[in-house]
Amino acid sequence: MSGLRFATLYTENQEVATAVASLCRYHGLSGLVQYQMAQLLRDHDWINQVYLPENHARLKAAHTYVSEELRALGIPFLSRGAGFFIWVDLRKYLRKGTFEEEMLLWRRFLDNKVLLSFGKAFECKEPGWFRFVFSDQAHRLRLGMQRVRQVLAGKSQVAEDPPPSETQEPSDQRSSAELLKLCFSSASLSPIKQNQESLDVSIVSYLERRSRDCF
Q: What's the predicted TM-score (pTM) here?
């Protein structure tokens, strides 16, 4: 048993909700999981007084660390009041201002064990933007930023994972629980071209095709 897996979909788009409903019979949960999740969600005091404050504090600490590292490297970035990632401007590290060069830089990160999301995948208007997810444990963020520095400095060696004895959180730092990767962004401030209506249509079309294939 790999763990208790549970997820919900929150949407105000009725077409998306209808399309997803047709697939629910293939993704049912066992009675045991439903019972445990119901008990957890009923514990409003724990959610409001323990989980949410601790979750927010850990996210804030992680965001602060990555932001300070980027400032120390002299890398511009866009930071918003909510979300689990930071949009980072790495245009000055491209030899040419093309999306081909963006992919080459993305590949250099990948070769050094750093998996980033490149801007073209999100319809960025100009190459060189990358998405840094910071919702992770502090020791992993430190290792990740060490590898980022190596790539940007033109070094090929890969920072090794620290031994288990060194991966414990210091007493003055907080670790980050595994979180739902929800994204909050502003269309007027983000470099991403927002098109929610077309996104909803794409999701609906995909789910409808999957539904027909199942029957």
A: 0.61
